[in-house]
Design goal:
63 residues, mainly alpha, 3 helices
C-alpha cells in the first residue's frame, strides 16, 4: 500500500502529485499491461537485443 504523508497546509493537488509519482515508480500499470498478452521468451529477448543495438547506434552517433 502506498502511503503519502500530507504536511500541514499542503494542498491536495501536491499530495495527489506525490501519490501519482510513487504509484508510477512501483510499475503496477506496466506490469498489468505486460500480463494482458503473452509474449514468447524468444520474442522478448529479440526486443531487448534490438533496443540495445539502437542505444549503441545513438551513442556512436554522438561521438
Amino acid at each position: 500500500m502506498i502511503i503519502v504523508p500530507v504536511k500541514e497546509g499542503e494542498s491536495v493537488e501536491k499530495a495527489l502529485k506525490k501519490f501519482k509519482k510513487k504509484f508510477e515508480k512501483t510499475g503496477v500499470v506496466r506490469e498489468l499491461r505486460d500480463r494482458q498478452k503473452f509474449t514468447k521468451p524468444s520474442v522478448r529477448r529479440r526486443e531487448v537485443v534490438k533496443k540495445a543495438i539502437y542505444k549503441e547506434q545513438l551513442q556512436r552517433a554522438e561521438e
